[in-house]
Fold these 2 entries.
Entry 1:
Amino acid sequence: MSLLVVGSIALDTVETPFGRAEDALGGSATFFAAAASSFGPVQVVGVIGDDFPADALGFLTERDVDLAGVESKAGESFRWSGVYSFDLSTRETLETRLGVFADFAPRIPEEFRETEWVFLGNIDPVLQIDVLEQIHRPHFVACDTMNFWIDGSRDALLQLLGRVDLLLVNDAEARQLSGDFNLARAARWIQAQGPRYVIVKKGEHGAILFTPTGTFFAPGYPLEEVFDPTGAGDAFAGGLIGYLSQVGRVDDAELRRAVVYGSAMGSFAVERFSVERFRDLTVDEIHDRVRQFLEMTSFQLPITEEVDV
Amino acid sequence: MSLLVVGSIALDTVETPFGRAEDALGGSATFFAAAASSFGPVQVVGVIGDDFPADALGFLTERDVDLAGVESKAGESFRWSGVYSFDLSTRETLETRLGVFADFAPRIPEEFRETEWVFLGNIDPVLQIDVLEQIHRPHFVACDTMNFWIDGSRDALLQLLGRVDLLLVNDAEARQLSGDFNLARAARWIQAQGPRYVIVKKGEHGAILFTPTGTFFAPGYPLEEVFDPTGAGDAFAGGLIGYLSQVGRVDDAELRRAVVYGSAMGSFAVERFSVERFRDLTVDEIHDRVRQFLEMTSFQLPITEEVDV
């Protein structure tokens, strides 16, 4: 199954209480592809400047990531720098330099247009719609967004929502988008705008999947050492949609598993700076962590009760 | 099995965006007993003033709650009043009048001293220790505490921790007590002080159980209507220990179920003001909600994977 991601490819300078990484590989498409490529091939559409380190994306290519959709343009690459608080619960953006990303107009290469699984990373919803226009007949479309677009491009965003199967947002974004502080009602509101499925990401508190028939919770993995939270949400999306594209179908049981695979990949992302953790991540480690999620959430009804679930 | 709770019995005046309750039944022992009595008899030790409405505790008596340990003293009953924010995420205390609770010195009636299951509600750790001194040989002791005691009675609290099986705290309290912002490490630190088990309550984000061998997560129940969050934590404790005392044993499987029964009772508590929801709560409703927790958290490993959990 073919899987395409459109999003940012950035150079991040990140400071956490545990160290500092300078001009490290970052961006939504990068984290997504690093995680999703554990499940199958990934096609990336993005843009980098002519200052981008020559071999920085090499490890993605080795992981069966097709970079044919990554345009290199004259100018500076997208750079973000930030500092995390001592407990990693908040971060301050020091600088955002959009560079060539400011004029990003995603062009889907001819050979990517038959792709079946699509993740629209967090970019202007007008561009996200434009990407969909270029894809022939996607089987499943997921998208991300952020407060900036919810506030500034609401009409385009609502138009986009009518065309996607799954929206991934964090809890604050779900509340902002719906105007409802209650997450269960907020998710129902979003579903009414189009997406059959909504996933609300809550960072260390886990993620909630809302489907037309039910709700599924996955906890955050209780790491004793979190090194750098950057990219966890995109790695989550990469694990989620990477898994779904591998099994090739979307139903309640597969979506639940996909959320857990996403949670696992998010938990790996934060164990090191940038996408470092994915360089040597093994399939066994992934399945192991998924088994730990099962172990962490399993309980049995009392034997005196009828079990009907 | 006999179950005893020591804690406050209060008259709460609560304002939420959905209404106001004046001098409504509140306090940790009250919420605990209201929830735990769905599982079996409960013994209460507490104090009320001579202004306490004559029949306010009548519904507890009907639920097989033994109030022989509730002293009525000359003076005013413990009163708390507070206002919740529009999204119920924060609350402001308007007034706390301790009244007769200020000099509360729990006296365990002779007929309660052989009790096997004990919950020490959130009172001065010196008094919590004093309660333990009066109980002959408890089988299982759980306790709660709060920032005020962690800060002001740290030595007594640490001494108490050496004598309890389970500490229930919220995430902020776990961090404050351990001095570690990482919850997994914070829980290990607390366990090293004595309690074999630690439960970290995270409100709408659920609860985490730490045992010597593992970790278990229960999500918050995604209510579309939350009416009044007051007492949810004590109702959680009531469901948890009420369930355990009913099955009469503490092992990994029962503790996991107990956390879910606790979560269910906490979710009922917030559906109405005060302990109102417990007045007509049925056993079927409780089991139903527990089944919904199972439904909300269940997933299967992929069939291609070996299932060894």
Note: Chain B touches chain A through 46 residues (CB under 8 Å).
Entry 2:
Amino acid sequence: MGIEERTKGELRLIPARKGVTERVKAGQTVTVINTHGSQVVDSWAFNAEDPSEFMSMEHSRGAMLRVNPRVGDTLRSNRRRPMLTLTEDTSGGIHDTLIAACDRYRYEQLGHVGHHDSCTDNLAQALASLGVTGAETPSPLNLFMNIPVGADGSVSFQPPVSTPGSHVRLRAEMDLIVVFSACPQDLVPVNGADCIPQDAHYTIA
Amino acid sequence: MGIEERTKGELRLIPARKGVTERVKAGQTVTVINTHGSQVVDSWAFNAEDPSEFMSMEHSRGAMLRVNPRVGDTLRSNRRRPMLTLTEDTSGGIHDTLIAACDRYRYEQLGHVGHHDSCTDNLAQALASLGVTGAETPSPLNLFMNIPVGADGSVSFQPPVSTPGSHVRLRAEMDLIVVFSACPQDLVPVNGADCIPQDAHYTIA
């Protein structure tokens, strides 16, 4: 059974280094597929009627009582309302809520000169394509990103534990605009030890 | 030696349940004193010249490589620039970067009916008193707030470990607007097992 059949929807591309956006109705399920196995997908959700309400990691952690969503957990908005529920996860269950989206400042600090794609720019461009401007850059849900927290509160950047074709399923709890960015980070190994950003895919059903 | 003498500045009040704001110059040190020992102080910083740049927990964690600042750590802005450095801490070293400021939605969910002060409203009112409107509500640095992270990624809300009169010192790394809110949470024991919000104090030197 292929990924498309398993996920019950048209397979759509999140191109390596780029972002995509979709409008999703309450009750629909978005499946995000880690096609090559080691690609982090920065994820955001906004209330489709009012983008000043957005999925908030700092509000979600307090409600989930976890730093990392598990199946059954609901991500909440900055008004503490349910936005997305994690209903299935074949990726190993390691995602991140702690680390900001990459941005041009990050790449400058890492020594990159000139333009570099970033998840922050991908979010802004995706929203602009829907005519949404001026939205905040919320702290993202970093699907498949592996940022372990040590007993001493330390955090470290590690390669994903997900495998090729593994996926997460997220059910929309309100009408949403969702944005997914295949993280273009190629200077530290968050997208795998080879530091090569890859495509990912998704379906909406 | 009294608190005022020890902290080398005029002792100023953060009234229980309320917020205060100050303009602080680069190089100045703000000392926040947990006068009664168990009061959480939600803290924010904004670039004094451009409040769209603000102290960001999600950017700071990635730079500090910790979920919880220690002496010597620098909190960074959403443009990844240094804003505040923790230079001294007599409180036991337990602060929180994970949990959103309380807001009216939080108190509604906890069953409160009618008005309740909140750190989110305190921030907005403090900024408005300086003529700053429309700023984001960044995830705060919750001084003295005790949110342990378990080995399984769980978080829990615990009373502070700080003691009466203990303090933290924060050095401004750029010209800042800082806001401090003595958290009005009285329905869960984040401000001590007795759930009674208290005054705190601060100095600027």
Note: The CA atoms of residues 56 and 138 of chain B lie 7 Å apart.
